[in-house]
Design brief:
Helices cover about 40% and strands about 15% of the residues. The protein contains nine helices and ten strands. The longest helix is centred in the C-terminal third of the chain and has 26 residues.
Length: about 290
């Protein structure tokens, strides 16, 4: 990372201890007086081997960009591996589709809007702020408040989709992929209720909404802790490495293996498993070549 960026970053972090930034349920990227979107890209790009990185699924990408230009919405159902996944995605998208790179909205968990080390980067992104299931019960006395916040946030998501031309990144696992017992990265399974929620919001938006699988192989740059930590302040390890992402073909949300089931809960699970397998298969193809 260029030495000139470190003093600016440290000042941004210190500011959070004095006056924490108040994230709204829907946060728009801070571009002035300091462009924190660009700051995040400038900070992450030196540790990313861009020359060896790959952006795959360009046909699907071109298709979804066309749909967005018509006023349709796109929801990306993706795995999640590192804190700066939004910056990594933008660095790979920007040369082809700078507008998509800047305007994409990310569903963000509470940790990236509460940890002072992460906040400067979160401020530079368009975020829908939500409490993930993994942290909703911690601490127990705040559960009710968190659930109310999530309800309010989902209402705003519905409003955004009603406006149209929105591209939203969702990680239905609710967290990052981590190392398994065999020492390999294991993708976190997708939660059917999370996918169902966004599907229902899309159905009620009044604008066509398209779902695509997005696969990220970004783990090597900023590996997360081996276990899910309840407290803030995790150790950050940074490695110079390439990153790979792949946009899969548009998902038929109504026709998939198990879609004929009468039981709604089983159908929801079958859909989530099907989409997870699409991402898992693409992840294997991305990491086999690396």
């Amino acid at each position: 990372v260029p030495a000139t960026l470190f003093p600016a970053y440290l000042q941004l972090v210190l500011d959070q201890f004095i006056t924490p930034f108040p994230f709204e349920p829907y946060h728009k990227a801070v571009r002035t007086p300091q462009d924190l979107y660009q700051f995040g890209l400038d900070f992450v790009s030196p540790v990313m081997d861009l020359a060896a990185s790959r952006l795959e699924g360009r046909e699907s990408l071109a298709s979804l960009v066309e749909q967005l230009s018509k006023g349709d919405n796109v929801i990306l159902l993706a795995n999640h591996q590192t804190e700066p996944d939004p910056q990594i995605i933008s660095l790979l998208l920007a040369p082809l589709y700078p507008s998509l790179a800047e305007n994409m909205i990310f569903v963000a968990g509470n940790r990236v809007v509460e940890d002072p080390l992460a906040i400067p980067f979160s401020m530079g992104r368009n975020l829908v702020c939500i409490h993930s299931k993994k942290h909703i019960n911690n601490p127990p006395e705040k559960k009710e408040k968190k659930l109310l916040h999530n309800k309010r946030t989902m209402k705003i998501v519905g409003q955004l989709l009603a406006e149209g031309s929105k591209c939203i990144y969702v990680a239905p696992s609710g967290g990052r992929d981590r190392l398994g017992k065999n020492g390999r990265v294991e993708l976190s399974p997708f939660d059917g209720s999370s996918i169902e929620l966004f599907y229902l919001l899309a159905e009620n938006a009044g604008k066509p909404t398209h779902f695509y699988p997005l696969t990220l192989a970004t783990y090597d740059l900023f590996p997360p802790p081996k276990t899910v930590e309840k407290e803030l302040g995790e150790k950050r390890l940074v490695h110079y490495a390439p990153a790979h992402i792949k946009f899969g073909k548009e998902i038929d949300m109504e026709n998939f293996p198990g879609s004929a089931q009468e039981d709604k809960k089983e159908k929801r699970k079958a859909r989530a498993d099907f989409i997870f397998q699409l991402v898992h298969k693409d992840y294997q193809s991305l990491t086999e070549v690396t």
